[in-house]
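re the bet — no i am not wrong, look at it urself. input seq straight from the record:
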Amino acid sequence: MKKQGHFEPPPGLQRRVFLRRALWVGLAGAGGALLYQGTGYALPEGLSFEDLRLLSTREAAVLAAVSGRVLAGVEAPDATDATAEVVVWVDGYLARQSRWVRREVRALLHAFEQSPPLLAGRLSRFTRLDPEGQDAVLRGWSISRFAVCRQGFAALKGMVLMGAYRRASFLRAIGYDGPSRA
């Protein structure tokens, strides 16, 4: 008599062999998904390999995507060029920091890239999401119940803004004329 809910392997196949094969199929599927999620990166428009001192192509792509969303509300006439300039500035800034800071920021970029399934319920990486999906991920980081996520979001946003607000066009866009000349 067969119990309800009890698993029986196909006829002629031992349970242990079946479970081992199922495990290998599952691992192969997970490996394929990881391979798919970790490939297909290109440098953001306006950047070349000579522009970067520290960041990899993947990290530069993630930083450009984050920059694009963080700066989306700023109406600067040359905003399209700003993302590449921000990536170059952050890359140079990080290259001058200690090794542990570089390692932490690079790990943060990788965490942003792989976080959409957890923070936005989307089975994709950050750079492949549409703008609304990317905004949902950024919002998830900014309001996370985990302080380390909120701090990581604030750190990345701060670096993006430092890179962007070096430009006079962004300062004008937010209504800042520069320091008073007293």
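see?? The CA atoms of residues 8 and 38 lie 37 Å apart. told u. also The mean pLDDT is 80. so pay up
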